[in-house]
Amino acid sequence: MGGRTLIQYIRNQNKSDVVKMLSRNVDDSNEASLVAKAIIEDVKARGDIAVNAYTKKFDGATIDDLQVSQSEIDEAMQVVSVDLKEALQEAANNIRKYHEQQGSNSYFINEKDYRLGQIVKPIANVGMYVPGGRAAYPSTVLMTAIPAKIAGVKELVMITPPKADGTIQPSLLVAAAFAGVDKIYKVGGAQGIAALTYGTETISKVAKIVGPGNSYVAAAKKIVSSVVGIDMVAGPSEIAIIADKEANPAFIAADLMSQAEHDEDAAAILLTDSEALAEAVKMELAKQVEQLSRKSIILEALSKNGAIVITNSIDEAIDITNELAPEHLEILTTNAVDVYGRIESAGAIFIGEYSPEPVGDYFAGPNHTLPTNGTAKFASPLSVTDFQKKTSLVYYSKEALEMRKDAIELIAEEEGLTAHANAISIRFKR
Ligand SMILES: NC(=O)c1ccc[n+]([C@@H]2O[C@H](COP(=O)([O-])OP(=O)(O)OC[C@H]3O[C@@H](n4cnc5c(N)ncnc54)[C@H](O)[C@@H]3O)[C@@H](O)[C@H]2O)c1
Ligand SMILES: N[C@H](CO)Cc1c[nH]c[nH+]1
Ligand SMILES: [Zn+2]
């Protein structure tokens, strides 16, 4: 292991110091932002020519037709194994069933002389970014596209960077077909975000862009967010586990590493009141990591943002967790249901030793795009609501307005807005 600390131990610290030690400085890279800005301006000015130039530069691909054809999708259906297709289909069914419970509904308040309402409509056209490279996840396609389609998005456009040979990972195309994506384009990075924002000769502009990506994609989304809607900017993955002395150290080590393998900046934290468990988990980490293909990423993540925190009690572990507001939280204690009832902030909670986090990543139904970096204190998992918008409705009859005109005029006058007051009073002048 080259002398690097496998994972840091934190003990004998007060709660706020532990939270400080575990809070991450997410690199809001200015460099990525400058690069993304230049690419966006270029795509805005030169459209497809710029898109193709950046695809050649960053992905090494020469693309004749930006849009994925039906025959490419049919071919992907042939290439992907029956077993994987069945697994994706079952996952899709679970995700659909869960998300069908979500979403806001229109409502109306009908009184005898007025009518008020909230009208909920789907966002008409949405672009979804699907990362390429080592994070080309068909599960993320399902998690993004299914809630969009449940909301009623008419035109759901997926963009993803091509491989150097100009193809897209077949399982991404299969997942997109299962989820009902309408169009797929071979473009990624900031150029893809720019194309969705401003439109090009081939790609139509959308009203909202969702989906995770690397620092260039995240920077581009932030830059265009004054022009199009964006979802949350999800950062590197995080897992926190609260466990007591009864928990299985092998399971805990495995679960910590399941998130650490996402990338070098992922965070994996165990909070326990048991020294013996902490030691056993550390040994399991060292043992199991040897068997894993992404060993070097896991070791880097554990050494940078991994920690085993020995707390005085499970109560203290709960308090620290509520301050951290982790993306994923596993509860592996004898009284897990009681502990879960006291969690105020977490993206997703997994209870008991047979609900490891990857069950949620792939299969159970809840969304795996979750708030990271403490934002679970105010933000929520991606949901059907992210693909809806609301309009309010007011209807007053003549009688209704006449009855309330003095109150309205009074408030307008208090604000010094006499034109507002006039728009009311003019209707009743004889
Ligand atoms: N939170 C989630 O649910 C979730 C799911 C999947 C992936 N992710 C994250 O998405 C990210 C995927 O990153 P990725 O890089 O594999 O794929 P990506 O598709 O996000 O980025 C690839 C693109 O980045 C651009 N790029 C690369 N180097 C560049 C440079 N020097 N200058 C300008 N642009 C450049 C290129 O256009 C390239 O096509 C990871 O950070 C991963 O953790 C998160
Ligand atoms: N755990 C990731 C979100 O933090 C999502 C994911 C996709 N594939 C596997 N995991
Ligand atoms: Zn994951």
Automatic annotation (TrEMBL):
It is an enzyme of class 1 (oxidoreductase). Pathway: Amino-acid biosynthesis; L-histidine biosynthesis; L-histidine from 5-phospho-alpha-D-ribose 1-diphosphate: step 9/9. Binds 1 zinc ion per subunit. GO terms for molecular function: histidinol dehydrogenase activity; NAD binding; zinc ion binding. The active site is at residues 327-328. One of its GO terms (cellular component) is cytosol. The keyword Oxidoreductase applies. Its EC number is 1.1.1.23. Zn(2+) binds at residues 259, 262, 361, 420. Substrate binds at residues 237, 259, 262, 328, 361, 415, 420. PROSITE patterns: HISOL_DEHYDROGENASE (PS00611). Catalyzes the sequential NAD-dependent oxidations of L-histidinol to L-histidinaldehyde and then to L-histidine. PANTHER family: HISTIDINE BIOSYNTHESIS TRIFUNCTIONAL PROTEIN (PTHR21256:SF2), HISTIDINOL DEHYDROGENASE HDH (PTHR21256). This is Histidinol dehydrogenase. The gene is hisD.
